[in-house]
Specification:
It is a single chain. Helix content is about 25%, strand content about 20%. With about 90 residues, it is α+β, with helices and mostly antiparallel strands. Strands 1, 2, 3, 4 and 5 form a 5-stranded antiparallel beta sheet that branches. About 20% of the residues are buried.
């Protein structure tokens, strides 16, 4: 788990927007799609490892993965949530 004091000073490395811990249902939906190869990061590479958690940018456009309690705050590793948001709008 990410320390709340650390979370307060962390931000998106690209836009410097605040970030928040992703809700479990979002992580579960992404993890369910990873085996099918549907989840790509910003670099266009397939996400192959399940997410332990994530940090969502304030505008809800990207999720930074958390693995082994370590946030991966690299722009290319961020997962676009555009398709996730589109999927939710369809349901």
């Amino acid at each position: 788990m990410i320390d709340s004091d650390l979370l307060k000073i962390m931000c998106c490395p690209e836009t410097h927007q605040p970030i928040a811990i992703a809700e479990k249902p979002l992580i579960d939906r992404l993890n369910a799609q990873i085996p099918s190869g549907r989840i790509l990061n910003r670099a266009g590479r397939e996400v192959k490892e399940p997410l332990d958690g994530g940090l969502v940018r304030e505008d809800q456009k990207f999720l930074y993965p958390v693995r082994s309690d370590i946030p991966i705050m690299l722009i290319d590793e961020a997962i676009p949530l555009e398709t996730e948001n589109a999927d939710k709008a369809e349901t």
